[in-house]
Design a protein that fits this description.
Layout lengths: L12 H32 L2 H28 L2 H22 L9 H27 L8 H50 L16 H14 L1 H16 L6 H8 L3 H25 L6 H21 L3 H29 L5 H30 L1 H22 L1 H4 L10
Helix pairs in contact: 1-2, 1-4, 1-5, 2-4, 2-6, 2-12, 3-4, 3-5, 4-12, 5-9, 5-11, 7-10, 7-11, 7-12, 7-13, 8-9, 9-11, 10-11, 10-13, 12-13
Length: 413
């Protein structure tokens, strides 16, 4: 057996540039989402308004996902990503202007929600584009290691983004925090210009869109391992989306202010990031199915502990370990996606995945806001954790092939 090289993908220059791009964009996006959450809840003091943020983003993201996947498979990936980043810069600048102190009132909510909606349009394209570009900056033999480092970079930015947002909101306010976000997005754009244009591997350029979309959907449907993994993750995130209610916990339950909010927001990402670094040295491919089910079960337990806690450090620990378990799930899922998706279909398959897993974050935020309004914040979080556990147990019983999944023989030479 070939010795595992934890730095295999990092030995390719363009992949390192790709990581800089991804880090800058995720940092900007995660900071922006936290700043918006804080601004909206500060204006409304209503958890339902936090749910609406997720709804405003998920509607366009889901509606355009399949169409976006078709476009991504038909177009050159680097230039398409440049267009996505430029669109993100326009949205971030709009939010910066919408949060000017003289306009910071409930009327500005409509502008914020509209810009979040536009962000959902951009996200429909940016996610499959990044997934497809990753496979073009490293050789196939480095896909597994590249997916781990790419996910780790994503998590590192997701760690720093909320913490930095909490700190900057405290020091300079939401308005100037959004100005800083524009700067990070510009850094990502500049780095992206240093990646060469890539060939289009799709042999069916100009294929009718309906036929193309059907092909992508059928591929995911027939690839049972991909379908099972992303479905399980979707349900877990949908019902375990306690993160959307963190402003309520920070301001009204734990009473820790914006800095404490930043720590709470970052805690899951810290746990996930450390898990991903560990997985670069100790791959999770062996008995991947059991590890996936156990990890998501543990995620549900952590969410319940967080919901029941009114002690700050216990809440931070619960969120940290929810990130650890979520990191295991993400590494296994991304490994499955990279190894089992043909180059010509990466855009469409990633778009189908984004409907399942990416949109579930926003739908989870909407579900959390709705259940918090109906049954109270704490009860809503505990309910979500319980539903996650029930889902994992029933899935493990109903799909024995998922339990037996092993990826040790799937590495591409």
């Amino acid at each position: 057996m070939q010795k595992n090289d934890p730095y295999q993908a990092l030995r390719y220059k363009e992949f390192n540039t790709f990581l800089i791009v991804r880090f800058a964009l995720v940092l900007a996006w995660s900071m922006q989402f936290v700043a918006i959450e804080w601004q909206v809840y500060s204006l409304t003091k209503n958890p339902w308004s936090l749910g609406l943020i997720g709804l405003m983003e998920v509607i366009p993201a889901v509606s355009l996902a399949l169409f976006a996947g078709h476009i991504v498979d038909q177009k050159e990936k680097r230039n398409l990503l440049i267009k996505c980043v430029l669109a993100f810069l326009v949205i971030s600048t709009g939010l910066f202007l919408a949060t000017l102190p003289e306009y910071a009132n409930k009327n500005s909510l409509y502008i914020i929600y509209a810009l979040v909606f536009c962000g959902g349009l951009v996200r429909a394209f940016i996610s499959p584009t990044i997934f497809s570009l990753l496979a073009l900056v490293i050789p196939k033999k480095a896909y597994t290691n590249g997916a781990t480092w790419s996910s780790s970079t994503w998590q590192m930015a997701a760690v720093l983004g909320p913490a930095l947002a909490g700190f900057t909101i405290y020091k300079i306010g939401v308005h100037w925090s959004l100005c800083l976000i524009v700067g990070f997005a510009l850094i990502g754009l500049i780095a992206l210009l240093n990646i060469e244009k890539k060939p289009i591997h799709n042999p069916k350029i100009g294929e009718p869109i309906l036929k193309s979309l059907k092909e992508g959907i059928l591929f995911v449907k027939n690839e049972k391992i991909i379908l099972g993994a992303i479905t399980l993750d979707m349900i877990a995130v949908l019902f375990g989306g306690a993160v959307a209610l963190l402003p309520v916990f920070a301001q009204d339950i734990l009473k820790v202010g914006p800095e404490g909010f930043g720590v709470l927001r970052a805690a899951p990402a810290v746990g996930a990031f450390l898990t991903m670094l560990f997985s670069a040295y100790v791959p999770l491919n062996k008995n991947a199915g059991y590890k996936l089910l156990i990890a998501i079960f543990g995620f549900g337990v952590c969410i319940i502990c967080f919901g029941l806690s009114n002690v700050y450090w216990i809440s931070v620990l619960a969120l940290f370990f929810s990130g650890v378990t979520d990191g295991v799930s993400m590494v296994i899922r991304q490994t499955i996606m990279q190894l089992k998706t043909p180059d010509a279909m990466r855009g469409r398959v990633s778009s189908v995945e984004s409907i399942f897993t990416g949109s579930s974050n926003e739908l989870g935020a909407f579900e959390s806001g709705l259940t918090a309004k109906l049954m109270g914040t704490v009860n809503a979080v505990v309910f979500g954790g319980c539903m996650t556990i029930i889902t994992v147990v029933s899935t493990g019983i109903a799909f024995p092939t998922l339990r037996k999944l092993d990826l040790t023989d799937e590495d591409v030479e």
